[in-house]
């Protein structure tokens, strides 16, 4: 980008050199050659300024487009990460809730309904202790 700022000067100098050489070869007086060289230098310097502004404008537009594309890409990436994080949090909370949910119901049953037919609890009403001293 540094060389772009030199374009007007370089264009003006080369144009004036070419005009000077052409005038010298054709045998024109030196005064006329100097006038033509200065006019061509001013005209081509102005053309160089226009060209420099045009190139800088194109460069800035390309830079803006790249920045916009980068911002869009970052936003999409950020959105994707948020979605993944939300899904992960949903899964984690579902796992936590699944582990926490304990459905305890206490129903009143008779003692007979509580046990199987084969199992009878031991009656402890009468315990005999044999104390031999």
Describe the protein in words.
With 133 residues, the chain is mainly alpha-helical. The protein has one domain. It is 71% helix and 0% strand. The chain contains 3 helices and no strands. Helix 1 runs antiparallel to helix 2 (30-100). The protein is rod-shaped. It starts with 6 loop residues before the first helix and ends in a 19-residue tail after the last helix. The mean pLDDT is 84.
Succession of helices and strands: HHH
Distance between the termini: 114 Å
Shape: rod-shaped
Q: Give the helix tally.
A: 3
Instruction: List low-confidence stretches.
Output: none
Computed CA radius of gyration, to the nearest angstrom:
48 Å
Biggest beta sheet attributes: none
Instruction: Estimate the helix proportion, in percent.
Output: over 70%
Average pLDDT number: 84
How many domain regions? 1
Going by helix content, strand content and strand pairing, the class is: mainly alpha
Strand % is under 5%
Beta strand count: 0
List keywords for this structure.
133 residues; mainly alpha; 71% helix; rod-shaped; coiled coil; transmembrane helix; membrane; transmembrane
């Amino acid at each position: 980008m540094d060389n772009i700022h030199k374009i007007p000067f370089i264009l003006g100098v080369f144009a004036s050199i070419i005009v000077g050489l052409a005038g010298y070869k054709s045998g024109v007086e030196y005064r006329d050659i100097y006038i033509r060289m200065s006019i061509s230098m001013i005209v081509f310097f102005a053309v160089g300024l226009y060209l420099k502004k045009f190139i800088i404008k194109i460069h800035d537009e390309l830079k803006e487009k790249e920045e916009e594309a980068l911002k869009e890409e970052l936003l999409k990436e950020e959105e994707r990460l948020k979605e993944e994080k939300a899904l992960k949090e949903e899964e984690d909370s579902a796992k936590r809730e699944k582990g926490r949910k304990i459905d305890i119901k206490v129903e009143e049953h008779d003692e007979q309904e509580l046990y199987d037919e084969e199992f009878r609890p031991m009656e402890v009403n009468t315990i005999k202790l044999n104390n031999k001293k």
